[in-house]
């Protein structure tokens, strides 16, 4: 029997990340739920896992390079190299509704630190493992309406491998995506 695919989902303790983790588990992928607060990650895992055992919660702060390294090392050692990475962790500040003139530099920095550089930190650790396996998919959850032309109801899932938009997921969206592995 082929080994299960392993996925890391960042910011998986709530919201869209938790739903992505749930759907990946249903698709029989082994899911690593990364959360800043491990207790919240474990709570989320308990909520979505039912009778399944193909998931584990780990502590992860994408703003902290050492935390990212530690997580990837632990995952590789305990479960094997990941072949799916979902860069979901993000701050979603009020700035999304605000005008440029109302948005502080500190808020821009915080947003880029997590939403952009957090994904960069994750890719830096995970991509070499994927390259070694010659197997990997990276899904970057977009923010600030990259593909939505200002319509916040739509949230794109874009594939880091082929760069195509692969779906749209949001509680408020008309056409919620189903994850296909
Ligand atoms: N919902 C929408 O309509 C919408 C629209 C556009 C874009 N997005 C994007 O979609 C993604 C998920 O959105 P959501 O609505 O599910 O957001 P959410 O409910 O606010 O959840 C965000 C998740 O990211 C985690 N997180 C934040 N900073 C982190 C860090 N430094 N390290 C690790 N985890 C971190 C949060 O952890 P804590 O619980 O510890 O805070 C939480 O688990 C975000 O990237 C957001 O920008 C959402």
Question: How does this model look, in words?
Answer:
- It is a single chain.
- With 181 residues, this protein is an alpha/beta fold.
- The chain has a single domain, classed as Rossmann fold (3-Layer(aba) Sandwich).
- 37% of the residues lie in helices and 18% in strands.
- A 7-stranded mixed sheet has the order 3-2-1-4-5-6-7, sandwiched between helices.
- Helix 1 links the parallel strand 1 and strand 2.
- The chain is globular, with a radius of gyration of 16 Å.
- It starts with 5 loop residues before the first strand and ends in a 13-residue tail after the last strand.
- The protein binds NADP nicotinamide-adenine-dinucleotide phosphate (NAP).
- NADP nicotinamide-adenine-dinucleotide phosphate binds at residues 10-11, 13-17, 36-37, 40, 60-63, 88-92, 114-115, 118, 141, 143, 152, 155, 170.
Distance linking N and C termini: 17 Å
Percentage of residues in helical conformation:
25-40%
CATH architecture designation: 3-Layer(aba) Sandwich
DSSP summary, beta strand count:
7
Look at the structure and name the CATH superfamily.
Answer: NAD(P)-binding Rossmann-like Domain
Strand content: 15-25%
Mean pLDDT rating? 82
The ordered H/E elements are EHEHEHEHEEE
Rg, rounded, reads: 16 Å
Number of structural units classed as domains:
1
Shape: globular
Strand order of the largest sheet: 3-2-1-4-5-6-7
List bound small molecules. NADP nicotinamide-adenine-dinucleotide phosphate
**What structural class do the secondary elements suggest?**
alpha/beta
| CATH fold name | Rossmann fold
Largest sheet: 7 strands, mixed
């Amino acid at each position: 029997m082929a080994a299960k695919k392993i996925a890391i989902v960042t910011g998986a303790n709530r919201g869209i990340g938790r739903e992505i983790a749930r759907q990946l588990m249903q698709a029989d992928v082994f899911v690593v739920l990364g959360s800043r607060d491990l207790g919240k990650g474990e709570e989320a895992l308990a909520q979505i896992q039912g009778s399944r055992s193909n998931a584990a919660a780990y502590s992860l702060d994408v703003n902290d390079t050492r935390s990212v390294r530690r997580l990837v090392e632990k995952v590789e050692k305990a479960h094997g190299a990941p072949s799916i990475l979902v860069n979901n962790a993000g701050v979603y500040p009020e700035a999304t509704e605000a005008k440029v003139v109302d948005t502080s530099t500190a808020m821009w920095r915080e947003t880029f630190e997590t939403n952009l550089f957090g994904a960069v930190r994750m890719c830096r650790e995970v991509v070499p493992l994927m390259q070694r396996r010659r197997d990997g998919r990276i899904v970057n959850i977009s923010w600030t309406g990259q593909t939505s032309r200002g319509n916040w109801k739509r949230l794109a899932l874009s594939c880091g491998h082929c760069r195509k938009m692969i779906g749209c997921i949001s509680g408020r969206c008309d056409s919620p995506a189903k994850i296909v592995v």
